[in-house]
Structures are given as C-alpha cells and as structure tokens.
Amino acid sequence: MKKNLGVIPAVYPMPVLIVAAYDENKKVNAMNAAWGMICAMDKIALFIDEDHKTTQNLLKSKAFTVALADQAHMDVADFFGIATGNKMEDKFERTGYHAVKSEFVNAPVIEEFPVVMECELAEVVQTESMYAIVGKIINVAAEEAVLSEKDKVDPAKLNALIFDQFQHGYYTSGEQVGKAWNAGAGLMKK
Question: 155: part of which helix (H) or strand (E)?
Fold first, then answer.
C-alpha cells in the first residue's frame, strides 16, 4: 500500500549539471543545476532562476556550457550549488579549477569535469509556472578516459553524479541493467 507524501519534486534520478558562463569582463561563473534535461536531439533545457549570477551572465553572452558532474569532483559540484556568485566574487577561483574558452561558443569549459556540452542560447521560456533557458548544443567534448572503444561516453567510466530529491543525496550512475529499445521488445509480440 502506498503512503501519501504530499507535494514533493518526486523525480529520480536528477542530473547534476554544472552550468558555466562568462560575465561582461570574461570572468567565469558556474552553478550546479539539477533541474535540467535534453529537450531535443540538439537542445538542452535548464530550469533555473532568473536571478542567478550564471543566468544573468549567459543571457548577456548568449552562450554557456553544461558539464556533467562526476563522483571525482563532487565537492566542487556541491560548492557550485551552495555558493552564489551574487555574493561571492571569487566563487570560481576558490575551487582552484581551470577553465578555457570553448572553441565553439563564447563560454568557459571547466577542464576538470569530463563531459561538457557547449551551447548557444536558443530561447528563454517564461510562463506563470516556469522559467527555462534553452540552449542549442553546438558541440559535446569528453575526456578520452570516459569514452568506450567506439568513442561514445561510457556511463560505467563516467561515474556521473545524480541528485536525490527525496533525501538530498548524491549517487552515481554506471551499471547497465538492460538495453533500451530491447528490454521490452518481448511485449511487442503479444
């Protein structure tokens, strides 16, 4: 029997995404955004507040990067979520991390995170219930250490962080338990 829990954001897992953009002086700002998803083959939607420093920067620069946080960099990924660039001028510098300019868009690529999407601002969707930044993915770059022999990102090597909305924990993904478009194929024959 199910127990009623009330209104909670009951989607699991949620990705741990690190969004980075330059300010008008080419200073790097980054934030942790768990509320984001792919919304087309070449687009990502980020459901982030308009008042974030990173949001303001990417609206001005019209470009940003989205990195997949991994277990090896959990401490900095979490820091990017609890510190605000609106109050902490040296937020990025405190981490000791490194950023280089994307060769595809006007945004920083944080070198320590193993997979990054380089995006141009496609649109802002604002309704009474939602504020979303939609980015057009111009390029995806990945460290060779997280690639399979077929040059595809291997989740078992990536150890991507996933966020637990229920108890506010971080977990890792990685173990394959089935193949998409195959696990349910037997039911097609009924």
Answer: helix 155-158
Q: What are 53-80's pLDDT values in tens digits?
A: 999 999 999 999 999 999 999 999 999 9
- Whether the model pTM is above 0.90: yes
Place of tokens 């974030």: 52
User: Residue 51: helix, strand or coil by DSSP?
Assistant: coil
Question: Rounded to an integer, what distance in angstroms lies between the CA atom of residue 167 and that of residue 13?
Answer: 12
CB atoms within 10 A of CB 37: 14
For residues 146 and 115, the answer to whether their CB atoms sit within 8 Å is yes
- Using the structure block, give the residue that is written with the tokens 């080419």: 26
Element (H, E) at 20: strand 17-22
Number of H helices, E strands in the chain: 4, 12
